[in-house]
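JOB MANIFEST
job_type = single_chain_structure
chain_count = 1
residues = 339
[input]
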Amino acid sequence: MLVISFADAILDSARYTRRHLLLGNGFSIACRADIFHYGSLFAQADFSDVPEVRAVFKGLETQDFEVAIRALEGALRILPAYVADSAAPQAMMARHAEALKDILVQTIAANHPAIPGDIPDEKFWACRKFLSNFLAPQQGQVFSLNYDLLLYWTLMHEDKPFEGPIQLNKNDGFGNSEGDPLADYVVWQGEVGAHSASVHFLHGALHLFDSGSELKKYTWVRKGIPLIQQARAAIATNAFPLFVAEGTNIQKKNKIRHNAYLYQGFKQLTANAETIKHCFFIFGHSLAQNDDHILHRLARGRFAHLYVGIYGDPLAFDNTRIMRRALGDRLITSQPDAN
């Protein structure tokens, strides 16, 4: 496959009417690999309540939470075929799979940078310049698969001094609550809000909380308290952020279909993928099968072109695997420097 630079990919994509971005965990790893890499999360996680799950990770030779969750949920379904009295181990596997989801959320919240000031301005400015290729006026939309706050913080960050403003369309479909417009949070505005939004968190995020009657977005400007502190306080009371942490792509798809916000974002991605004169970029994603519920929508789409980012040596094992998963007539682009 042809490997081109990110700059050349942007020039090439200028022939299309809209340029969209699917953002993966590589975006966060590029900023703070010590926090956002799956291996780092494993090292920082507290498994004291479910010590048995360490053996699951060891047996699978992975530190990927999603792989472990998927293995547990798959094993509990086939165990009855091999064990006569499997009710007790099945219940334990189900309980541990759910516990891993909670541990993942708690670990991300506990180790996340506390405030935007913990990240150098230069990183935010570089990311804003990168995102301007997709969120500039009359451009496209960004679909994030990440749970953390880095994208949100980047959208809220002030522009780099002396170089002029970088205008980003940061509408995410949230606004004042009709019942309490002065509340210290904003709420999702429903399907109408989804249609006008340019930023979609397809798997939820650390600042989004489902209260049952409405989906809340915590903000600093409304409460004057850093978002991480708000999220940690909510988790301490057993209120968890909206996360899609299921193990398989089928389970993720089912979770998305049963949440209005997630499903509307999914539908927006699908609608853009069906538009012939649009193009998509994928950044920081390995094209792993556990996100096939998203990737299949792109593969079946009618949009004109897909640009897939790779990092490092194109002949490295991970990159050749990504290339094999990509369609043969698509362009593979080198990853831009968003550090």
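[summary]
The mean pLDDT is 87.
The CA atoms of residues 141 and 198 lie 5 Å apart.
exit_status = 0
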